[in-house]
Amino acid sequence: LSADRGRAAGWPGPTLVAAGVVLALLPPVFDIPLAAYLSVACLLLGGIVWVPALLGAVLRAVPPPDDALALLAVERARHQRHTATVAIAGVVASLALSVALTVMVASFRDAVTQWLDTVLPADLYVRTATSPGAADPVGLPEAFIDAARAVPGVARAEAQRVSSVQLDDRRPAVTLIARPLADPDRDLPLTGVLRAAPDGEVGVYVSEAMVDLYRAAPGTRLALPLPDGGRASVFVRGVWRDYARQHGAVMLALADYRRLTGDLRVNDLALWLAPGADAAAVQAALRRAGDGRAADLAFASAGEIRATSLRIFDRSFAVTYWLQGVAIAIGLFGIAASGSAQVLARRKEFGLLSHLGLTRRQVLTVVALEGAVWTAAGTVLGAALGIAVSVVLVKVVNPQSFHWTMDLLLPWGRLLALCLAVLAAGTATAWLSARRAASRDMAQAVKEDW
Length: 450
What we know:
Blueprint: H1 2-9, H2 12-24, H3 34-49, H4 51-60, H5 68-79, H6 84-119, E1 124-128, H7 142-149, E2 154-165, E3 174-179, H8 184-187, E4 190-191, E5 203-207, H9 208-214, E6 221-225, E7 231-240, E8 249-253, H10 254-261, E9 268-273, H11 279-290, E10 297-301, H12 302-316, H13 318-345, H14 347-355, H15 360-402, H16 412-437
Parallel strand pairs: 3-8, 5-7
Antiparallel strand pairs: 1-9, 1-10, 2-3, 2-9, 4-7, 5-8, 6-7
């Protein structure tokens, strides 16, 4: 009968975890990943409910220690594992969330770093001071572009035209980028393979948001708005990652853009410097070439743009580290409260151990070892559960929320440090709670049964 009850009690955990997996496969609802959020909740709840069974499986794999105190702690933790649900459920949940946030932020930062390395190939960038996302930003004069190519120290210069087009009145404008594309595989952070454009058709490259919002998958055709109010049918050759424009971007070769629109204006200029060239001297020469328009020009090196972007990224996600600390603290508070309550309830047991010859220090050592065993098992379970949740966050929530993808990166060193810190803190918390709650004269507790 007890075995049947144990098997029945073990069903909710796997059921919730399985439900979380199924929910992670569902599409978003009104562009909101509701099913993915429910998936994360089911995974966390299933992991917590599954703690006793998983804890038993972990402890069965632990060989009996030779030390008497360690053996007593391990055996009690093994046979009283159901009480561990209250003790370490908070640690499992908080560590899982901390691991998931750590993996998500590390994956995102690594993806942004690789993306910046691809989209910033030049050494120096010049653009008009007005926002390039405006409907008709001020362009750079042809004379300035010719002068920039002739500046000593400039090895190559590429012009770029950035504007906005309205594909759907119900959605924000899409960014249209026209730039030289000699080798799209090298010049763009592409995802997947390229499709060859049919003869006579203009090939374009769309960001991942375009696939989700406008169904502009590779191999399809897109009605691209033109400055004169008309539209041109273009062929979608491939998809590229764009972490700067959430509402979508379309890129095409500058020559194709000029042939379709007749627009010869440019508002961005990418400059490759010759080896040994002084970037400051080149920038000063460009300002002189700009003459009276020098105040309207904005200069930035690839290193400056990269450093600024990563600094903004780190500031945006700095709050996650505080959230991790708060989550871990809540989990440790659960260990402290549960440990104190158990120590008070086990005064007779401690009194018996005292009669058998154990000192107060040894009894507290047993309690600390029990806390270490439970915390270690909870750390293993929490880390595994956190990695599972991070897969949902990286592979489901991010694409459905922001319409971009990234590769999953597991920062093993940081995760190991986080798990070791939780293990040490949980052990210390159990020992301190037992030290405060345990009576100094524990042997007197046995007299209550005489």
